[in-house]
Every structure is written in C-alpha cells, then in structure tokens.
C-alpha cells in the first residue's frame, strides 16, 4: 500500500517517497542537530542557575549590592532573546530547505 | 468599594463583552470554537500565549514572592522566560504541523487508538481542573480584597463571566480577551516599575543598596524559601519543561495557519514575557521597600496582594483600582482559556471521537463543545468553592509537574522516536500522571509536622515540594520501557508507514490542513 494521502487540492502525496529522499534526510538531520544541540546548551545553562545559586561563586556581590545570581539570571534573559532571534533566522533557512525538498519531489514527477 | 474601582471594573467587563459579542457572530463551526478557525496572526497568538503565561499566579504571585523572599521569587521569572525556548525549539512547529484541536489529536495522528486519546484527554482534564481551581481561588481572594465582596460571590462572578466568553465567543473571544489583558498588564506593570524606578532616581544600584541596607542582604541571594539545591532544581525543571506540556498552551498552536506563524507567535511571546518578568524585580522590591513586609503579610500570607498594595502606595486609589481591574481581567482571560481546553478534551476527544467515533455533524460538534464548556465550568466552580484554603501556588506547580512528566515525554517521543509505540505512549502518560499525584500526596504541601501548614499533620515521606526531578525521568523511562518491552511485531510495517508520514509532515508542514483524524 502506497503511503499517500490527498491534499485539499486533490493532489496525492507519497510520504514514503519523500521520506526515502536523500535530500529530505540530510535536511532533517541538519535541522535536528541544530535544534537538539542548542536545546541542550540552554537547558544546561538554565539548570546551572539553581545549582550555582547556592554556591559562593554566585552569592558574592558583582556590582554594588547586585549579587551573582541576579547577573546570571539577567544573562539567561539575554540568552533567551538571543536564541529566539537565532532560531527565527535559522528557521527561515530550514523553510527554504523544506521547500527545496518538496520542489525536488514534485520535479521527480511525484504527484 | 469605591466609584473608581467600579468604573475600571465595569470598563474592562464591558470591553470584553463587546469583543465576545463580535466574536460570537463569527463562531459557527467547531474549528471556529476550538481554534478560532486557525486564523490568528502571529502577533495576536503571541500576545494570547503571553496572556496564558501571565496568569494571576505569575503577576500577583511572582511579585509577591519577590517581595517576601527576594531572589527565591525571581526563580519563577527565570523559569517562565526560558520555557519559551523549549516551546520554540522543539514543540511549536511540529505541534502545528501534526495537530488539529487538541493534544490527543496530535498523538492519535500517530497512534489511532481510543485508549491513547482517552489517557491524553484525562490528563488534560486533570491539569485544567488543578490550574483552574488555583486561578479561581486566587480570583476569589483578590476580588474580596479589592471590592470587599464575599469569596463565594466573587468565584461565582468570575465563573459566570468566563463561561459567557467561552460559550458565545469560543476561541476567538478567548484569544481577544487574552490580547487585551496582556496589553493592559504590560502597560500596568510598566507604569508601576517606572514609578518605582523614579523613587530610586532610575538607579538599579540604588534600589539594591536600599534593599540590602534596610531589609537585609538575604533578599539578594536565594535561601529564604528554598534552602536546598535539589528542591529548587526540581521546581525549576517543572517550570521550564512543564510549560511545553500544558494543554492550554499547546492548544494555542492550533489557532494559527502554519508552522511559520506558530514560530512567530512564540517569538512575540518571548519578547513580551522577557520584558514583563524583568519588571517583576521592580514590583517585588518596590513592594518590599515602600509597602513593607508587615503590611504585605497582614493582607495575604502568600504575598499575593503585594502588587495592588504597591499600586496604592504609588498612585493611590485610582492606580490600585486600575491594577485590580487588570488583575481581574487576567484571571478571567486565563480561566476562559482553561475552560475551552477542558471542553475540547471532554467534547471533542471523549464524546466526539471516543464515544461517537467522530461521527458528529458540524452542528452536533458545536453543541457538544458548548455543553462541555458548561460542565467543566460548573465542576471547577464547585471545587473552587470548597478549595478556598488551599495553597494556590502548590496547585499550579502540580499542573506544571504533570505537564512535564506525562505530556512532554510522549510529545517528544511521538515526533522524534521511530520505534515509539502506543503501549509506550500509554505507560509514559499514566506513569507521569500517577507519579506526580502520588509523590505530591506524600510531599510537604500535604503533610507538615506543623499544624495548619499543610492539609495533614505528619512528616512528609517525600521532601520535595515539586517532585519533578523524580517524575520527569520516570515519564521518559516508562515511555522507553513500555515501548521496548511490548514491541508489537504484527503492526510493524503499518507503524513504520505512519511514522514516515509523521516525519514528513512534521518537518515540511506539507498538508497541514489534511490532518486526518
């Protein structure tokens, strides 16, 4: 049984065929590597906060009476905004790659 | 109750009712009701998701917690902000590409089994009810403070209003109420924070100096509330991973047309929450410095009224009335979203898909959705009337814990793990849910040696307030073991075929409108 379904336009998509495409798999691998490595990085930096917060390193005063925990937290806020921006930029390139994969599939005559 | 408070209160109620009236005219199908027809723009959905984040627990609870416990309260702010990244990086786009109305729809795109739908819907209903009771109890206490009306009347007012929004305006009205409320809240906190900064000559250093000298250096570091690393790590894990498993947040991804818009939504939400939660420092420290610990504690032991009290100090009755009205709008918006989510699980998943096998006409679906909304609202109102003395933040942290332990593992496995099977999905969800409930029932929020500090007197068997550090790994392990120990050979070819389809859809967004279930 072919793995197909009909889209709104009545055009059948063969999912097995797309899934078997080398370009599709390369794209997914690249995307997942990016997503999971960044996710691992921000989760580690995040969970270090409650761990380091009780250690002397973040308990000392950095600026005036502003202690390390506040500075580290501010860093996490900035990290969030930066990684959000990075993602939006990167995702636009993933969209293009996905569109290219679908275009290649169409060009092969897969309707 | 004075005239100014009543005016602000009525203005907000009036505005939201007008929105509901307009939305009601556009709500005719089940898709309109559950997902606003999938037609929200990125910024609109972004504000609405921010609205879901900025619940009364976040606005009143976090600023109060910072006022009472200093940095310990700010842990929450960090958690809520970083949680956006988990949503953005691993959840938002595949969710939009695979789902229709509910979390269960997304899971059954891969495993078309009634038991999966049943377990997912039950988890959703439990989380929604816990979260809703917390919001309603908070609402009752707040309205009692601001307007001096009885708790039960306050709960009934909020209950009737939220049901009205959902019943007539569905997701369109609920989203717009969220958008209005998020904007008002952002404006209100910005105003309060600016007024606090004026008092400190716009110097962050001066504010911290004043807190250190006048109130003690213990406010500058963690330790007033959380004394152990493991307790705070557990709580932080629940916050950052639980957000991605909260059904009312997940449901918001179905209100946009494609993955790109889902991503834009979270981008908006990230900015809004980052700005808002940065301001909680000024609200918390402002309240501590100008209102004072004694007065905050005198009004509410949990510090929930710190922000309104600060508003009163800074701007008198008028500002307090405005902030109070905004807090009221906040609660209304969040509970409306919760009612809608609970209704989708009852009417769409359990009644429509499980009992009626999806054989409902469009009209019957809408009737079922409205009936579901009324039932979930009535149950929550009744429970809230009895739950007055429960600790609100305890209920919310529980909802996060279940979201992280029961929903997140199964979502991630469904999207990313080829071998995952339906038995694994059931074991992951059941284990996550049950372990949270059981460990929570043995924890310090239920048992305390000090009489009156918890529900029962006794030594807690589990010393963790939020057991996430145990239950999240349990959920993932259960999903893994359930899968490898049960592998159902007979359907392997079929399972592989579906996974290929899921993989293509999740990664390319092809035929989003064609999700068949």
Task: Outline the structure in words.
The complex is a heterodimer of chains A (111) and B (517). With 111 residues, chain A is mostly helical. Chain A has helices at residues 15-20, 22-52, 56-59, 68-107; strands at 4-6, 12-14, 61-63, 66-67. A two-stranded antiparallel sheet of chain A has the order 1-2. Chain A has a two-stranded antiparallel ribbon with strand order 3-4. In chain A, a hairpin with a 2-residue loop joins strand 3 (61-63) and strand 4 (66-67). In chain A, helix 2 runs antiparallel to helix 4. The radius of gyration of chain A is 22 Å and the shape is elongated. The two termini of chain A are 16 Å apart. The model of chain A is unreliable at 6-10 (pLDDT under 50). Chain B has 517 residues and is mostly helical. Chain B contains 19 helices and two strands. The radius of gyration of chain B is 22 Å and the shape is globular. Chain B starts with a helix and ends in a 9-residue tail after the last helix.
